[in-house]
Task: structure prediction
Amino acid sequence: MNEIIKTENLVFQYEGENNSDIMVLNGINIHIKKGEFVAVLGHNGSGKSTLAKHFNAILLPTKGNVCVDGINTRHEEKLFDIRQKVGMVFQNPDNQIVATIVEEDVAFGPENLGVEPSEIRKRVDEALESVDMYEYRRHAPHQLSGGQKQRVAIAGVVAMRPDCIVLDEPTAMLDPRGRKEVLKTIKELNDTYGTTVVLITHYMDEAVNADRVIVIDSGDILLDGTPKDVFCQVKVLKDAGLDVPQVTELAYELRKCGLNINVDVLTEDECVEELTKLLEE
Amino acid sequence: MLKDITIGQYFPGESFVHKLDPRMKIVLTIAYVVMLFLTNNVYGFIISVGFLVLSYSISRISFKMILKSLKPIVPIILFTAILNLFFVNGDPLFKWWVISISAQGVKLAVFMSLRVIFLIAGTSLLTYTTSPIELTDGIELLLSPLKKVKFPVHELAMMMTIALRFIPTLIEETDKIMSAQKARGADLESGGIVQRAKALIPILIPLFISAFRRAEELALAMECRCYHGDEGRTRMKQLQYSWRDAFSFILISVLIITVILINMFIKTGSF
Result:
């Protein structure tokens, strides 16, 4: 079993006012492999959060299926297995921390799973170390900054030893420094521990580090590929109301002006390199 | 202004008092309160005060914190004092029109105020040296026999934990909403009591709405972390009684018995 999350023709609709059905997702097929770092992009109301909520059975599909490590999310008796395998981190760190002390909060998940006390202790310490918050273990959540709180929330999920972590706009409420911290943590979890990461976001530059980018627009998959493949398609993204990273846009505009420059630049360094090459010519 | 509230604040530490089992600390606090109310004599009082001073010294909590915790209850202390001062009959010390103050009244007023002060100081020490989570754990375990009669002990403890967790968050939010309403020209400081109460409405409504929203999100986050009540749940921190608890238990028992004996046999200095 190489796929951790698999959706087959996932349709989700809900009943809106005057009995009309509102389609949020129209038949989405996604296969997410173990160890992958997937960024799901889309603007507000594109259905990306709804999609994320299907990954650990918070929502069940109207039609189609979602399988987590081979378990269909419709199996209610397997609910806790699914939620242990796929952890979820939400936007507002304040609203997902339960306990009044950092380490107690991280222990909350394993406690619910009925893990042995000594084993919980071990997992909590490891989880806090993996997000670099170990020295804050005795702090109260309200003494921490937004980025630190969000890292604690991530540790709370990590302590449950999930195969996959789904993060639903984890940086939307953070300042730039907090965003950087959280992104670094996510990347490290993926690199060092091989945890599958699904990052839902509407910031393009956060998706640059991912292995794979999926762009969702009004309930459909618009693009799916490596960051380079996806961000090259500047026009498609712009039409969908999305931005591209600044440097990619610069290259795109320069090319439009007739300069011979590669459009697939994602980072500042790459951009500088391309530009110097251009100037040397 | 809202940040000054200290009741229920925890100061981490490694002292003897901090290391006591929370269950024992709750029992000790209750015993201390009982002792205070059993005391009807100066010597007994000295014992209670001695115990309090000892506990504060070894816990390394500054005595200034006592003053801080007393601030909100000054009106109650004054009220008890005045009530005792004027309404206790006895040999009048001072008489003017219908007001008379008796020697017994003065004595009782002083002792009652002291009693309330020591009561608050003692119970505050519990919250100063016990983290809220330990406290709720202690309460949960102390009450756990009630589970047999279907009393929702775990749910109660969970509610307390969450309430404690969200107090600072909601205070911060109240501050923010107040500033926001002030920026829109809301007048929160002037006017009579009715007007001031009315001025609170634009603060309370947004606060409630956001609290409900938070509650919903928190519930979702808890579900995602497999919370399903008490059943099959374990605890990272296992509480265990140690020699410290045994020692404190014996100490408070001895003290209470002494206080009772003093009450029975020493008649001087009683009130």
Chain B has ten helices and two strands. Residues 2-130+241-265 of chain B form one domain.
